[in-house]
Predict the structure.
Amino acid sequence: MSMQLLLGQTLGFTGNPLDDWQDVTHHDSAGGVLIADGQIKAVGDGATLRAAHPRAAVTDYGDALITAGFVDAHMHYPQTGMIASWGKQLIDWLNTYTFPEESRFGDRAYADDVAGRTLDLALAHGTTTLTSFCTIHPESVDAFFAAAALRNMAVVAGKTCMDRNAPDALRDTAQSAYDDSKSLLERWHGAGRAHYAITPRFSPTSTPDQLSALGALWSEHPDCLMQTHLSEQLPEIDWVRGLFPDARDYLDTYEAFGLLGARGLYGHAIHLEPCEIARLSEIGAAVVHCPTSNTFIGSGLFDLMGLAARQMRIGLATDTGGGSSFSMLRTMAAAYEIAQLRGTALHPAQLIWLATEGSANALHMGGQIGHLGAGAAADICVLDLASTPAIAQRSARANSIWDALFPTIMMGDDRAIKAVWVAGQPAI
Ligand code: GUN
Ligand code: ZN
């Protein structure tokens, strides 16, 4: 059995640090990560692991910080080409920029090109798992899963379903959404590292018939995830109220059709009513924080600490291309800034946890990905904590790992990614 030993500083977690980070956060300034068969076999003192495994091939990253690879819990790979489009808020942004671009993904060659480019950009930014919406076209789903399989990446994705309030070229029907989603999930769910998520875009673009068909599909395949959007912008919430006059609230437009469950991923979840928070929390569903998107599209300030206090699963995500960056470092920085605007300073350990373990827990893959510990997939990110002159001059005067890491979180980008490993193989 060929073994790899990575040496450097290591950072891992044995619990959720959002309450009290100190007891569950483990940093080793001279650590090691032992890898075999695509998995992490041990994390511990570097010299001890080296002595115990003299035949392991050693890669010494010096002072760089070895963490789990980042897990992006919500993004749209078809929006890669139109990221950073100017001047619109959600509904106008969808109609002006997003829908025309998504119309191109019935062309398999185009979908292949963007899928490969997106996954390579993700890896270059230290992200080893993407959770993506595709488009209504089954070709867009095949393209994404095939590109991920080529790279041996664990991914979550699904066909985006829309049968109203979208251009003709981007509308399916309740029946075709059910049929296409079913055949795609039968093809891809559990194939290698692929996971299927049933994907109604959001309730304004699905009729009750379509929501109900997708709810039925989820009940027939309860091991799949379900991803959608919830309460992102106030005009969107008003629109939902008009479209579903009998609904208790926005969440009820999913709940009433079988689309509220523990394996549900609800993106954004900014303007929640107390009843929605109570239902999400009772059910054990996950909300996904997309901070660069929330500032870029002008959506609002996600209540991370308030929802964490309700024991909610919380993932962190770029929401590319509503989000303005492929980088989970930039995403952590935006989460920090939004929390500051709500009166909380998130600790660097909490930010790294959200981008790794928090997102993995939201995907119900805790311990399998996003985890620097024995038994997890060897999906790893190595951070250079002095990647630019501006960061280097700041981290040079740091007197703790946290003071050294925080400038990279706030100012880092793909230049901070020294190496990436996917399933035990070097990818960057
Ligand atoms: N709500 C429905 N679709 C989308 C999307 O593509 N991006 C964002 N940010 N919100 C949405
Ligand atoms: Zn989204």
Remarks:
- The mean pLDDT is 98.
